[in-house]
Specification:
Number of helices: 2
Largest sheet: 4 strands, antiparallel
Distance between the termini: 53 Å
Number of strands: 4
Helix content: 10-25%
Oligomer: single chain
Radius of gyration: 15 Å
Shape: elongated
Number of domains: 1
Strand content: 25-35%
Strand order of the largest sheet: 2-1-3-4
Structural class: alpha+beta
Amino acid sequence: MPDPPRSRMDALSESRPPAYRAVLLAKSGAVIGMVRLSVQDDEQAIVRAKAMVDGHAVELWDGVRFIELFPPVE
């Protein structure tokens, strides 16, 4: 049986190195900063992004791929 067709995004993500970034969000949802993460995979990126959570939320992205939102710690 042939493999199912892949989406264009799947093909693009396989051909490029990861480009992880953490986006820092104010309580209002406004972007207050962005930090590039030099890590090799999602697991490492998640650990680093979680460590950045404080009085602000953190969104974790790999290029255009959203990974996770970490809410603020009060």
